[in-house]
Amino acid sequence: MTQTYFNMKPVKGTHLCYQERVQIETLKTLGFSNRAIARELNRAPQTIHNEIQRGTTRQIKHQKPQSKVYEYETFLYIPSLSHQRYIENRKCCGAKGIWAKNPEFIPWADQMMDQCKGSPGAVIGYAHRNNVFDDAMVPSTTTLYAWINFRCFHCIIEEG
């Protein structure tokens, strides 16, 4: 059974969850306006409008009575489509990692650690002292260790 009334109020300024998207679909089907839906969910009317725009898809229905073909265009809000688009948009948000700005550094650091048997800290220090890369493009030691841990974790998952 779906619970429509609960005692927790959503905090304004937060992202919509999937359950709220389903509620939007239900209320829209019942004929509620965007403003009425916003009041019901304690959200801004513009948030509801943007959400409906994101999750609305065009459907074309064909009817063939006798020899003519009629096409009817309908627009339908689908919460799962909206949630999927939200997730895809969130992947593009935020600052990019420093290795995205300087893709040459990571292979160079790997090679230096393999050949010289140096630690990540030593490789970072060498890059700074010898001006191998622009200082803004050399990550911190912590960032390099995080990248190494991330790479090792994914290697274990791929092998396992």
Keywords:
mainly alpha, single chain, 160 residues, two-stranded antiparallel sheet
Provide structural commentary.
This protein is mainly alpha-helical and 160 residues long. The protein folds into two domains: 18-91, no CATH class; 98-159. It contains eight helices and two strands. It has helices spanning 18-29, 34-41, 45-55, 79-91, 98-101, 105-116, 120-129, 141-159, and strands at residues 56-63, 70-77. It has a two-stranded antiparallel ribbon. Strand 1 and strand 2 (70-77) form a beta hairpin. The longest helix is centred in the C-terminal third of the chain and has 19 residues, at 141-159. It is elongated and about 80 Å long. The relative contact order is 0.08. The model has no long low-confidence stretch (mean pLDDT 83).
Q: How do the SSEs run, as a string of H and E?
A: HHHEEHHHHH
Structural class: mainly alpha
Mean of pLDDT: 83
Which strand order do you get reading across the main beta sheet? 1-2
Provide the number of structural domains: 2
Could you give the topology of this structure?
Layout: H1 18-29, H2 34-41, H3 45-55, E1 56-63, E2 70-77, H4 79-91, H5 98-101, H6 105-116, H7 120-129, H8 141-159
Antiparallel strand pairs: 1-2
Helix pairs in contact: 1-4, 2-3, 3-4
